[in-house]
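sorry for the late reply, my laptop died twice this morning and i had to redo everyting from scratch. anyway the thing you sent over, i finally got around to it. pasting the sequence first so we're on the same page, its 200 residues, then the predicted structure underneath. double check i copied it right bc i was rushing
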Amino acid sequence: MTVINIAGVVGVGKSSLCKILEEELNFTVFYEPFVDTNLLENYYKDKKKYSLAMQIYFLSKRFSMYQSSKEFSKSCIDRGIVEDRIFAQMLYKQGMLEDFEFEIYLDVYQNFYKNIRPIDLMVYLQISPENAIKRIKKRGRDYETSQDENYWVDLNNRYETYFKNYSWSKLLVIDVNNLDFVNNKEDKKLLLNKIQTSLT
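ok and here's the structure:
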């Protein structure tokens, strides 16, 4: 059984790479969980009110993905549980989660985290904040484009800090600033080779 995570900030191309792994290497993919539109829109309108509900929701869905991945020989998870904690930590530092709410979150997180077998490979797609913002604007999701650009810069910085000290599993960092693995065959081949080599 092989389980990998595709990690990276919003707009970096995680889902696109998961789809490529599904088509080219026969991975079973667990995509980012669908969020009820009302919850998602309310969260982006009033993070202070809905942050805890949103983060607990993602933890629960993410844990279910890991449990389901045990049923397949090769699985790929679109964003890992450790990334959920990055988002929660950022919300806490921004004052969107109260002390007691963050304590509740950490307790739930630890209960899930300790019951997940460490994955075989974490693939971190690295990108500059500027390029991530360009991609976010290009795909034009209202709830993303309405965010202040500083939000995305802060998120990117937190990802960089986290993965400099990452130790849960084997880590593969790929700088995708100058790669177009969706439309360029050579770039796609490069990523697939890196991932396959890291799994051997």
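The two ends are 13 Å apart (CA to CA).
thats about all i looked at so far, will dig more tmrw
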